[in-house]
Please model this.
Amino acid sequence: WPAYAPLIHAINTLKKERNAVILAHNYMTPEIFHGVGDIMGDSLALAQKAAETDADVIVQAGVHFMAETAKILSPEKTVLIPDMRAGCSLAASITGEDVALIKKKYPDLPIVTYVNTSADVKAESDVCCTSGNAVQVVEWAAREWGTDTVIMIPDEYLARNVAANTDIRILSWKGACEVHERFTAEDVDALREAHPGVIVLTHPESPASVVKAADFAGSTAAMAAWVRDNKPAKAVLLTECSMSDNVSVGQAETQFIRPCNLCPHMKRISLQNIYDALRYNRHAVEVDPELARRAKVSLDRMLALPR
Ligand code: 13P
Ligand code: SF4
Model:
């Protein structure tokens, strides 16, 4: 059985010595999330808090685009990611050159870009969004640009799910999250049959048919809040597996049912490599300053919207 306590103690000691904070996404395993996380939450909360912290060092317990976002928002800080290979299928689905071509084809339409993208993609975009504010950002962009059509990249499923909640017409891209695209409406039907009364929650990166069949869809923070507020007797979180592990802590009223899917990128982060990151100052995330300046415009527009 892994000995978590000595590593948790060593990490918490190193954090104090280095004036460091650990940003832990909701998909981190519980020993990371509950054991060493300082700022926990969804992509939106992590971006907001990365911009506000006065720590000298940020360790991103999450994936590369999150660390890059933290570096763009806090260029003077050391931003570390414990494993450089922690990528994302959405971020890998599109490049800055792709966005430049889209812009050339549709020069009058705003480009709303999911934060699950690289800095060069953000730099070519007009405004960022997360799953927690996507409808708000799309409606803001349509108003600002005086248009009824918005380009939203790169998650095709998120774009469709946003389109179902707004009158704005949305053009999208063919990216998908490898965790959420695998759920089906048949999974939801089978769960309801096997577990009568079960409440099904999912993420808007899932196909529209899954969102339609579920009881609730929202960002990871919104799913956690829904379960905490409504305390269902039985719930299934059709998302990454660590979600229900983390939400179940302190929620004895709810029986959490599987299935779930693992994100291989999130799962590259461990207590051991978080310790190594702080101890050996690795792996520092750097963004070219001019690229960061342009990407920050898109992030700042999102962060300036009312919370
Ligand atoms: P949120 O935490 O913003 O809902 O994002 C989910 C996700 O897949 C992040 O990689
Ligand atoms: Fe990317 Fe999906 Fe993994 Fe999030 S869960 S990092 S969107 S592949």
Observations:
- The longest strand covers residues 20-25.
